[in-house]
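Residues pack. Consider this:
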Amino acid sequence: MQVSDAEAAPVTSYAYKASLIGSAHRFELREEGLSWHAAGRSGLWRYDEISGIRLSFRPTSMQQHRFRADVSHAGGGRIAILSTSWQTAALMAPQDNGFRQFIVALHERMAQAGSRATLTAGLGRTTYAAVLAFLAVLTVAMTGLLIRALMVGEFAGALFILGFAALFAWQVGGLVLRNQPRSYSFDQLPRSLLP
């Protein structure tokens, strides 16, 4: 937490690099509202003008433990806040504590301002239903392959299918479980979507 010279109230700030090229995305919780600078754009959104926040778990190949907050403005526009920052071409560093503190403080300030923002967690309902349908089709196909491998005596193939299914369930299971679509309140943030 930082205190600026112009104000007596504390200013909570957070920054991350979305890519190796370009400047960092910077956010500050000021007395007037959420101040942001990202990708050559900037703005100040009053807390009561923020129309919604969506928290989600978004792992990537470079960082398996990555969280995202999408903040929407009543007049249009959306900014994304990520819990990781690019360090080098091969390293994306987590910023878990800073991200969590910033998101919790943003919710507190919005609640104090009497915000009526829509607070959602996980993927959208349509996207989540499509993911579940895809996983169901994949499960049926893998089960069919496993049965076929066992029927023809290809035990090495059956072991490979079981190993692949276990690895897939481990990798995708957390993503699916954490990103169940749901609503939450200012005082009950979803713990599974905060580092």
